Amino acid sequence: MVKDPAAESAASHELLTAKGPRRASAAVPCVLGKAQPLSTDGRKDVPAGIGLGLRYDLARELIDRAPSEIAWVELHPENYLRRGGAYRAILDEARERWPIVTHGLTLCLGNESEPSGASLAETKNFLQSVGTRWHSEHLCFGGDDQSLVHDLLPLPFTEEALSIVVTRFNRMRDAIDCEFAFENVSYYAPQSDDGLDEARFCAEILERTDGKILLDVNNVFVNSKNFSFDPRAYIDLIPTERIVQLHVAGHFIRPDGVRIDTHGEQICRDVFELLEYTLERTGPIPTLLERDNNIPPLDELLREVQALQTIYERATKRPREPKEPSTHSTRLA
């Protein structure tokens, strides 16, 4: 995931005070304007299919045209908290047309300092107001209580890091009172002798938190090329029943062969193939096309969405392959 520095929120700097046992959701969305019908628990159902990020540069045309290729949209709460005007108008109109899923930028799960109960309450209210079925944040380090680094820095695959993530994940999930997921990130320095240790680390977090994962297929592929591991073996180590959403994007290849997750290029064939492999195992789950940089005209994006939909339909119509239970023991330091 490529972060937008302009989206940083003061709510991401403070210390967490909300604690206690998990509670069943009783969310009742606030009214921001007309919205799609909600399910009985107060949250919108997200249809299987391809979604697109609600980027400000595209939002007006996307809303006006409401293309049938788009089944749902994803947005970052940091772009809308405490903002009115055009941003609020876009949010209201998007809610009339599509289910919304939220994906955060600043509440990184590897941070030791945590946001305050007040800021998480604000986030919780926003999530309820848009009716998201789940919320996700990044499995990375992003700063401390004084500043943000405006990047997604990788975590070491250690017991210490695991303990920090599990504690923070559980407290944040309690505070926002919503299904919660983390997203795997790309990284550019080796974090382990075995690249598959990242998948084992993710699986261990899922086991200890009973949580969900937003699996970024492009990040898996980028890391596999940069650090020489089998991306399909990585996918096989993630419990499919824990995967709530997929991300897919393009990446940049430097002259020296290093691949950089930019969300600024078209998806390459290898990533399309890894997505298909993943969907054959998960079945139909919401899949997002991420495009945050070098954003092309909407018609060009829609052609890429159509290509994704073809793969999606082909993969999810096949009988799902039985999967042996994975052994996700992580070599923790």
Write the layout of secondary structure elements.
Elements: E1 50-53, H1 56-65, E2 72-75, H2 85-97, E3 100-103, H3 117-130, E4 134-138, E5 141-143, E6 148-153, H4 159-176, E7 179-183, H5 197-209, E8 212-216, H6 217-227, H7 231-237, E9 243-248, E10 252-253, E11 259-260, H8 269-282, E12 287-289, H9 298-317
Parallel strand pairs: 1-2, 1-12, 2-3, 3-4, 4-7, 7-8, 8-9, 9-12
Antiparallel strand pairs: 5-6, 10-11
Helix pairs in contact: 1-2, 4-5, 8-9
What are the defining features of this structure?
36% helix; 9 helices; TIM Barrel; 8-stranded parallel beta barrel; 333 residues; alpha/beta
Largest beta-sheet characterization: 8 strands, parallel, barrel
Report the sheet-strand fraction: 5-15%
CATH superfamily, by name, is Divalent-metal-dependent TIM barrel enzymes
What distance separates the N and C termini? Answer: 27 Å
Kindly state the mean pLDDT as a whole number? 84
Low-confidence stretches: 1-42
CATH architecture: Alpha-Beta Barrel
| Rg, nearest Å | 19 Å
Q: Topology as H/E string?
A: EHEHEHEEEHEHEHHEEEHEH
- Order of strands side by side in the largest beta sheet? 1-2-3-4-7-8-9-12
Give the % helix: 25-40%
- Stated plainly, the CATH topology is called TIM Barrel
The beta-strand count equals 12
Shape: globular
Count of alpha and pi helical runs: 9
Please, how many domains? Answer: 1
Class from helix and strand fractions: alpha/beta
User: Any idea of the CATH class?
Assistant: Alpha Beta
